[in-house]
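Researcher: Structure for this, please.
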Amino acid sequence: MQPLLSDLLELLRYELEKYYELLKILYAERSLLVERKVKELEVLIKEEETTIQKIQRIEITRDELLAELSTELEIGDQPLNASTLTELADEPLKSEYRHLFARVERIKREFEFINDTNKQLLQSEQEYVSFLVDEVVKIDEPGDTYQDDGFCITTTEVDEFTSEKTLLLWLGWTPTRGNKVGLVHTQFFLDIAKENGYAKLELRSKIKEIGKYLIDAGWSIDTTIYSRRV
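Model: Predicted structure, token format:
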């Protein structure tokens, strides 16, 4: 049984590598969506389809190995999940399975995040195009033009202990940088938050310099997040 578990572990590692490749493609798609380069998505979508096909072929082999394990263990239709496989493995395989499934959980959460992000960006793009068409139709004089100020995507976070709602401004885009557009429109978001029962606004940014402007405008630092790739 241990040789089968060892073969399965190597296959699962390979499958995880392909999922990381797929995740990289999804992040690249997000960048194009943020920059509204929708036409350039075609190449990435083809790469995505190719990677998914590779994963599907791996899954067929994985299922065959799991079926072989089930037959050897005589467990019938009982599923061989992560905890069962880890329990069946001897050391050092057991530790390697634990580490692998921990990575699987992390990438699963990351997939959920990036999929939700891309769906919202696609929806935003569709709404933006509809809005832009409406605005262009309204242009009557030859000299009239439409000015695009950008967009902001928000989401709701709920404190599990206090049930307070936070309106998170987690993604914004403007055609020109450095105009402090977020600060200019702070009151707009404050009004929306107040009208809809939110306790506070939250904004996250990788740009350190923005902190000074936010603090001067009445914002405060709640937490600092550090991360490191593994």
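Researcher: Any notable elements?
Model: The domain at 151-216 is CATH 3.40.630.30 (Aminopeptidase). Residues 110 and 173 are 22 Å apart (CA to CA).
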